[in-house]
Amino acid sequence: MNQSTGVSMSVLSNIPFSLLELAPMRQDSTVGETLQKTLKYAQHADQLGYNRFWLAEHHNMAGIVCAATSVLIGYIAGGTERIRVGSGGIMLPNHPPLVVAEQFGTLESLYPGRIDLGLGRAPGSDQITSRALNRDEKRADEFPIEVEELQTLLGPYNGFSQVRAMPGENTNVPIWLLGSSLFSARLAAEKGLPYAFAGHFAPRFLHDAIELYRSEFQPSQVLDKPYVMLGLPLVAAETDEEAQYLSTTSKQRALSLIRGKELWLQPPVKSMDGLWNEQEKDYVDNFLALSITGGPATIKHRLEMMVKQLGVDEFIFTNDLYDHDKRCKAIEILADIKN
């Protein structure tokens, strides 16, 4: 092993790898089958030593079945042994903070030391669905206040509050702020909370958000220094060529998203030519600009460069391949590059 390789391996060996799950569904499958495969995928990640397995809240999206996020967190936590399980994230404007505190307090009581609460302020849906979830469209403006309310509900009893989360109180479930712009980066810095940037679908403000978070960070009882987790799309395979072929599944779903179509996982295709126009291709390429696509050497190099350029503390990957076995193989390849 040469010196440069040794240095590279040590860089990644100190970076935790985690997984962000949307419970993607094939049109020829069922919700039950999809969630059973999600559990098997999480169990495989647990055995491989991944740090976290987070589920993202989405609503009214055919092909994505993680709407009942806290229910799925319990399902995954109950079927795994070590890996932390949490939300990436709970869209707080959709839920009363008290209900979130009770749900996650219950989860933490059942699976102590393994539950994370990632919070976002987007609806996780379109405007019509958002109104169906919560008719108060101004809730997003109250996000900073509601984050503070959640911290209080999950912390020790203050001795005077008439509303208490039972269970939830004094569970101190770790709270993360998630975002794709500067708003949550600034709020996480002000509150001294860990911050996760959604580079898996919104890479535009990556550098600005991380720089803002680090420069304005205020130490807290939670953290004494900034902690950044970066979300990235992953398409890992034995070779670069195979990875490029498998990546057409993600490209087709991003294309369906911009067209307002259903988001079923589609089998990979040899070429995207004829499936999109030039403008759509540019949009999908921008959407997936941070995708880590390739064989082991390519993936390793890309991640090393990101660590050196951004100083990321942890990576969390989406991994939306059509074939379940190839999906599990992808996280084996990713885990192996740290060894």
TrEMBL record:
One of its GO terms (cellular component) is cytosol. Pfam families: Bac_luciferase. Residues 26-313 form the Luciferase-like domain. GO terms for molecular function: oxidoreductase activity, acting on paired donors, with incorporation or reduction of molecular oxygen. To bacterial alkanal monooxygenase alpha and beta chains. This is Luciferase-like monooxygenase. It comes from Vibrio rumoiensis 1S-45.
